[in-house]
Amino acid sequence: MHHSNIRINQAGQKLSFHQWNNRLNHLNDMALFVEVARARSFRKAAEALGMPNSTLSRRISELEKAIGLRLLHRTTSKIELTEAGQLYYERSKRIVDEARLAHEQLGAMVEQPSGVLRVSLPVDFATLYLTPIIGDFARHYPGITFEFDLTPRRVDLVAEPFDLAIRIGKLEDSSLIARLIGRHSRHLYASPGYLEASGEPATPAELAEHECICMPRTPTWTLHQEMNKVDVGVHGRFTLNSVGMIRALAVNHQGIALLAEKIVAEDVASGRLRRILPEWQGSSVSIHAVTETRLVPAKTQRFVEFLSSRLMEP
Predict the structure, then answer these.
(1) Is the pLDDT of residue 41 over 60?
(2) Nearest to 100 by CA among 35, 11, 188
(3) Residue 68 pLDDT > 70, yes or no?
(4) Measured distance CA(282)–CA(229) in Å, rounded
């Protein structure tokens, strides 16, 4: 027999899937019996449970048959518990009430999730995207505490104790579950000081004549204009793997940068940076929330939903 069809009880005996399923059905019928015993009426219990009277009566009869004892005295006017029924009711009521309380408590956790949320995320994402908005999430969910691991490495979500990881750019093929939470278009920016000193490019090709602040292994910028696309070879004195530092260098007049609009919005509003070649834009960058499984706790689900609502461009 396949292992998927076997359960082990406390005595170490094997239960077939059919026996296991029967026990689950008996637990459901126990809850129905408690409702009938409380109401002392099949009709009232059936109305409260939202099921047909005949179905409820049949289920209680099947429970009595499975137990081997009559639990109820049925008359045309009322229902009374037998001696066995009274004992079964007293024991069953506690079990059913405990189960109901557990569901209510779990429901409260879904509404107001709590616990430690452990997230692995890139340094740039944490400082540029998350820091300005995390306070809103923390205020809305006071029961959650946070452990953020800022690292460039791709943590192992199966072996390491993280609820989720944030990944920027193209995803590697894996068995992990990834949800797109943001896709940001990028544009070209430079400071007024740099443009005054070096001039402003009028076409993408002229970028080759300028100081461009680049990421490692990206000597080519791909730019789009409606249906047109052009690849431009770029170079500069600064090559680095920090979006935050690229932005800072651009603000400090060190060259032209290809950055997401969200990252430089305040710099543009204050005049520290200016968008150039406005009819062109770079390839968009994708942001994913990655988990080991689709079955994530409420704290993780709410966090992913929050990030998506704040980061996804219309």
Answers:
(1) yes
(2) 35
(3) yes
(4) 9
Q: Could you tell me the pTM of the whole model?
A: 0.63
Which overall architecture, per CATH, does domain 3-108 show?
Answer: Orthogonal Bundle (1.10)
Domain residue ranges in the chain: 3-108, 163-314
Q: Give Dmax over CA atoms of the chain in angstroms.
A: 100
* Cα within 13 Å of Cα(112), Cβ side: 7
Contact 282, 223 (CB under 8 A): yes
Phi, psi of 276 (to 5 degrees): -120, 165
Cβ pair 152, 122 in contact under 8 A: yes
Segment 190-216, tens digit of pLDDT = 999 999 999 999 999 999 999 999 999
Q: By the 8 A CB rule, do 296 and 163 touch? A: yes
Q: What φ, ψ does residue 151 adopt, rounded to 5°? A: -150, 145
CA-to-CA distance for 1 and 142, rounded, in angstroms?
Answer: 49
What is the residue-averaged pLDDT of the chain? 86
CATH for the stretch 163-314: 3.40.190.290
